[in-house]
Amino acid sequence: MKVIPVGIWGGYPKAESATSSFLIEHDGFTVLFDCGSGVLSQVQRYKTLEEIDAVVVSHYHADHVADIGSLQYHHLIASYTGNRLPKLPIYAHDRDAEGFAGLSYKEVTEGRAVRPGEVYEIGPFSVTFAETVHPVYCLAARFEAGGKAAVFTADTEFFEGRGVSSISRPSRMTSRVCSSSVTPPNEWT
Questions:
Q1: How far is it, in rounded angstroms, from Cα 101 to Cα 113?
Q2: How far apart are CA 35 and CA 92, in angstroms?
């Protein structure tokens, strides 16, 4: 499993950067975790948009979903120009009915509902979700593949005994979203 930090900013990105987002790769399959402001331009430093096999969205604040519409439009234009791509699955909770409905667009993307505590097979990954502590409903995600695990907390504050802590151990890497001026490594393997 390889994890590439695409963006590190919360709320809004600085110039030539993106809000918090990650590419998670294993066996040639690529998942984009969160797709907020500036993410698509930064993803293309590592992958083409056609190489994204699935998207996971933690919640519907703009810094986590702002570029979803642009990704959908990319896939639509590709279909008009004869490069029809497979329907892109976008996994997210459905507790925000309007936000969830926006994940399905024409024949190019499809929203797929997830729930905490259940295991979902997304390509080669087994993915488990847990609730976070945030003003809106938000899910952290644990990705497992090839004997490795990585946890992405999305937006949360610390709390013991349930939620994020229930999926965090043992894992090789846990990413917590925070505003920071620290530059992350180019990738984790």
A1: 10
A2: 12
124 phi/psi in degrees, rounded to 5: -80, 0
Contacts for 181 with CB less than 8 Å, ≥ 6 apart: none
pTM exceeding 0.85: yes
The residue type found at 169 is R
Alpha helices in 5-150 (DSSP H): 39-43, 62-65, 68-80, 97-101
Percent of the chain predicted with pLDDT > 70: 82
The reported pLDDT for the residue numbered 178 is: 38
Provide long-range contacts, Cβ within 8 A and 24+ apart, for 178-185.
178/10, 179/9, 179/10, 179/11, 180/8, 182/8, 183/8, 184/5, 184/8, 185/5
The residue assigned the tokens 């399959």 is 29
Please say whether the beta carbons of 65 and 35 come within 8 A: yes
Structure tokens at 32: 């984009």
Please provide the DSSP assignment of 8-29 as one string: -BSSSPPTT--BSEEEEEETTE
**Are the C-beta atoms of residues 41 and 49 closer than 8 Å to each other?**
no
